[in-house]
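Forwarding the complex inputs:
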Amino acid sequence: MNYPIPPGTRDILPDEMRELRALSTALLGTFERFGYGEVWTPTLEYEDVLVKGDERAAGASYRLFDEHGQVLALRSDMTIPIARLVATRFDDEPGPLRLCYLSHAYRAVTPQRGQQREFLQAGLELIGAEAPGGTVEVIEVLCAALDAAGLPRARVGLGDAGLYRGLLEGMGAEGNGAGAVLLALERHDFVELEARVAELRVSDRRQQTLTTLPQLRGGVEVLDRAVELGGDDVRQATQRLRDVAEGVTERGLADRVIFDLGLVRDLGYYTGAIFEVYDPALGHVIGAGGRYDDLIGRFGDPRPACGFALFVERLHVAQAEEERREE
Amino acid sequence: MTEPLRLAVSRGALFEETLDLLDAIGVDSAALRSDSRSLLFPGEKVTVLTLRPSDVPTYVEAGAVDLGITGKDVLMEQHERVVYEILDLSYGHCRMVVASRAGDEFAQDLERRLGAVRIATKYPRVATRHFEESGRQAEVIEVKGSVELAPIAGLADGIVDLTATGRTLRENALEIREVIGECTARLVANRVAHKLRQREIDELVERISARA
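Prediction (whole assembly, two chains):
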């Protein structure tokens, strides 16, 4: 007999499950070693609570009614449920709080694109530790987790969610013109970006800065190159990123990080550093995260926070590729 | 030690000029020119794969190739794919247009009378988005070839299609009513390759930009 399951979901059989279990254990073990305690939250939450965290994050998820007609939603990530948990259960604890998880999350998929409707995330949240120190700690644990997963070639892309917007504001570019430039950047369309920048009423040199800067990515030296390129405009807009870079360099992690002045993430709650995780074995990002200093404040007392999530199934694919290369 | 960059190029209208571009940046295109049956051409620095234009974004998004060359029309139609669009290669210039039979009433006139227009196209998502964004209703009918026939045969009131010289439109007594956008060949990159192979990709982009 053959019974279908929804596209974007899958069964896992013993051989693969054994490997996934070992990988998950290695990741959680790393988080524990750095002092992060594992938490578990319900898969279903009240929709209005999730939306409070981020409308865009909750928008794509699955909803159903409970027996009283209340709208329940499947979480689309773990960051918002943990923000809710912290506000509810740890409001009196000064922190910093170190929490980690191994949990499924759910997102709508486009058919025939190999996207996962249900996926396993291993991640952590550091709550109550400010930038840049807290951010550097999170990057350090992230690198250790990638080592534990057996992915020495994986790299952490590091950018800043407010960098380009700040640069535009610093140059006095606002309104529709600046909005169109930001939209092109979010779409990773540098051809469109150049065309929209050309329409801004700023000097030629500043136009040059706006066009070139988001294409700068690489070792820590790109931060100096950026300042050479754009002078004080860039010095100001990249200050936060350069503070994190200093801490990352001090911990000897600069080689694991790709500094990316054009990095953008599509979740609305990021306020500072943003991360993406890459491995040469895979064309998709294998993890992502960042700093979200305003999110906890939407549920309770404001606290600075930072975290990441690794996509365990994708990590597993990359791990298999690494093992194949070693043979 | 490092593997060559994988570049997908489109067989079709852009193919000849893409081969000229490869020659200009020092990637030998002789094998691609002489052998029309192979699909994969290994090279020292760049391995070239030949694909249908509309498959290029699929391969690039998945990371099956690092880079791709395809038309802006294809990228517009596959708007939701996550690829980095890094360079306008400026050849293969075309326009994406709305056209209908010369002399026919169109746009506002037709809309007032019928409430919606019927549009035949090979680019259903471009057409749908264009009419939605301009606040009009259109019934979009997807066809796979010879779009020009649709208004003549009465399948649709107008078409959304790509035109270079406008000759095919004229020959079928069609008139351009609106220009949706300008299309040229574009260089696109996989998001992970764009970061992890930054040096090689930037070097390639520089060579392309520096060509005469």
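The radius of gyration of chain A is 21 Å.
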